[in-house]
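Researcher: Sequence recovery benchmark, item below. Answer with residues only.
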């Protein structure tokens, strides 16, 4: 699988947060959520959907009153804090009464009129749901206040390790969560790396023009009676048998063109065809390198019988005004060459800038070692895997084939790069703060328009969705990091 390379600022992720800076909510399912508590109407709809038509009763009001929870990934102890909350019994009882009344108002139970179900029946019927709603009403604000008192900003999802709740008794909860420990970037302006020139050389330009000519080359038959030499294309039909694999199907091909002496041609083929003539039959044993792209041939030796059908030569077009007009909308060769130089210069600039920024970020990470929350690392691993799987899907891999992948191995393979990306993001965010880097509304709008084109979604619809799920803030922060990386790059001495 070809996943993105490591190093440098993390790739843009418009739809998954890398750093959760704002206060979050602890719920009964041991997660942090950004949504508001559900209104009574929403809770009623849930009750009707989940329980309408069911008339069995729960035997106890407070089943599972004391729980030990062990959820989520192993947290980084350097970035972990523990929070213990105790809510007075009076407040717990009051919340139980409020939630129970809401269930009384909206619950539909056979044999009772709407809104007239006795409290005892409601408590028995919906004991577990009432308990969860009480937790959802009590814990979020208590948790947020608790972490504010600790003076840290939680990231990821807290893990509830103890939870005791019962009507008429104090609520007790113990949770651990990750945060970003304080770190310094003092002296970041002194961190430098070599800054290679981005000007294109004449050799690079000529190589680009040669590749352009080769892309327009024609292959024509050789009419004269002569032997094959390097640079010729031999048209062959072949049948091969893999040594030591008697049951393997033969390797065969018809009317295949092979470039004799070509960089992608197995040397055994070039050696056998060099000096041969059309009509000859040859035998060759070809040994393929271990890293050969075709897996069934990699590291194998194949015995081939070859029929040389004909000899062809490739003719490159002349570089002139006619060639320029054939390539595109160019008046003459000079216009084409100017466009090629411009394209090559932009490509080299992007490549050099990207590689230099990668080295600069690696130098910053080495200069300012920081501990990173495991939850952020796992989010980044998820994002990298998602990009990789989308790429595989675009290449034709089916869902069934993806299910057979070793995801544990894939996740481990992405971990080192994910850690580097998280560290880069945190360092750039801190440096952006030090530099006062900001993103204007115009810059944000331009990025949304690009994202809308890529996702084939109306701009306003995308904006509304990103506003609702917090995506706009994430885009702004990502743009800020990119802008900061560019600022640091431009400051590097030439």
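Model:
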């Amino acid at each position: 699988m070809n996943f993105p390379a490591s190093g440098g600022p993390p790739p843009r992720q418009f739809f998954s947060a890398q750093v959760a800076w704002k206060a979050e909510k602890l719920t009964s399912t041991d997660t942090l959520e950004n949504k508001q508590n559900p209104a009574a109407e929403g809770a009623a709809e849930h009750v009707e959907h989940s329980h309408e038509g069911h008339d069995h009763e729960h035997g106890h009001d407070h089943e599972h009153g004391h729980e030990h929870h062990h959820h989520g990934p192993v947290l980084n102890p350097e970035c972990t804090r523990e929070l213990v909350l105790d809510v007075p019994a009076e407040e717990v009882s009051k919340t139980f009464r409020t939630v129970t009344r809401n269930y009384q108002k909206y619950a539909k139970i056979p044999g009772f009129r709407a809104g007239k179900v006795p409290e005892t029946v409601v408590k028995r019927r919906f004991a577990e749901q009432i308990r969860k709603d009480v937790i959802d009403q009590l814990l979020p604000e208590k948790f947020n206040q608790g972490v504010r008192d600790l003076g840290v900003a939680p990231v990821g999802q807290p893990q509830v390790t103890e939870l005791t709740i019962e009507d008429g008794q104090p609520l007790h909860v113990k949770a651990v969560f990750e945060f970003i420990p304080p770190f310094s970037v003092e002296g970041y302006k002194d961190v430098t790396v070599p800054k290679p020139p981005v000007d294109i050389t004449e050799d690079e330009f000529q190589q680009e023009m040669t590749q352009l000519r080769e892309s327009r080359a024609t292959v024509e038959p050789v009419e004269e009676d002569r032997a094959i030499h390097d640079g010729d294309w031999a048209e062959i039909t072949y049948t091969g048998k893999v040594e030591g694999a008697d049951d393997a199907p033969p390797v065969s091909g018809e009317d295949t063109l092979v470039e004799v002496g070509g960089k992608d041609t197995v040397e055994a083929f070039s050696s056998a065809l060099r000096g041969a003539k059309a009509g000859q039959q040859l035998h060759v044993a070809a040994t393929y390198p271990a890293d050969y792209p075709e897996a069934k041939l990699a590291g194998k030796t194949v015995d081939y019988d070859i029929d040389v059908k004909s000899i062809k030569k490739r003719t490159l077009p002349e570089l002139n005004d006619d060639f320029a007009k054939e390539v595109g909308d160019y008046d003459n060769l000079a216009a084409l060459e100017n466009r090629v130089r411009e394209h090559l210069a932009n490509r080299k600039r992007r490549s050099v800038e990207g590689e230099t920024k990668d080295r600069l970020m690696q130098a910053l990470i080495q200069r300012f070692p920081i501990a990173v929350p495991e939850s952020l690392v796992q989010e980044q691993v998820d994002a990298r895997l998602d990009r990789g799987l989308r790429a595989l899907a675009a290449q034709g891999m089916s869902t069934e084939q993806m299910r057979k992948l070793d995801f544990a191995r894939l996740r481990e393979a992405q971990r080192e790069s994910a850690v580097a990306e998280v560290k880069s993001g945190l360092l750039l965010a801190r440096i952006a703060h030090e530099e006062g880097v900001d993103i204007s509304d115009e810059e944000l709008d331009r990025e949304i328009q690009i994202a809308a084109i890529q996702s084939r979604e109306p701009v306003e619809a995308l904006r509304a969705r990103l506003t609702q799920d917090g995506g706009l803030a994430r885009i702004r922060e990502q743009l800020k990091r990119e802008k900061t990386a560019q600022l640091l790059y431009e400051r590097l001495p030439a």
